[in-house]
Amino acid sequence: xxxxxxxxxxxxxxxxxxxxxxxxxxxxxxxxIPAVELALEQxxxxxxxxxxxxSVGFSFVALKDFGEAGAKVLRQGAKHxxxxxxxxxxxxxxxxxxxxxxxxxxxxEVVVEQVGLQEATDGFMKMMSGGSxxxxxxxxxxxxxxxxxxxxxxxxxxxxxxxxxxxKATSIAEWVEEHVxxxx
Length: 184
Hints:
The chain has 184 residues and is of the alpha/beta class. Helix 5 packs across helix 6. Strands 1-6 form a two-stranded parallel ribbon. It has helices at residues 2-17, 35-40, 63-76, 95-106, 117-129, 136-152, 159-165, 172-183; strands spanning 22-26, 28-29, 45-50, 57-58, 60-61, 83-87, 93-94, 109-114.
């Protein structure tokens, strides 16, 4: 993916700089799950449009867990130098499964509908650029990322995060329950 290739160059420069470093590489943040928004929609049945195949697995991480792990890495300093950590709070879970959990927690049926690549890319570009003129390279990167996610997802293991936290990572069910309660 082009976005990961760009990050690779930055990480390579950091590695070669001689500066002490620790790289944290988070997966999808749970905060991108629109649980509160879906809870506030009218009716017993709501639709969640997804930009990739909803039956493909993804790993997620709660922002609070990522922040806690990052703070620990900063406090412990040298213990984590010269390390790269993939930060995942869950193993692979599909968007169909995520929306089933959301539906159970909000008391509604959540129907997952995949949108086409053009619509998905347009939506992603609008989110990234705020509607300003788009760069063709950025659009290419978005399309490639969406195609990659559609076929392969983005998966990892929660073991590294749980080691850093010294506890279990926040589950999707726990996260939804916490955030839907805040949104009421």
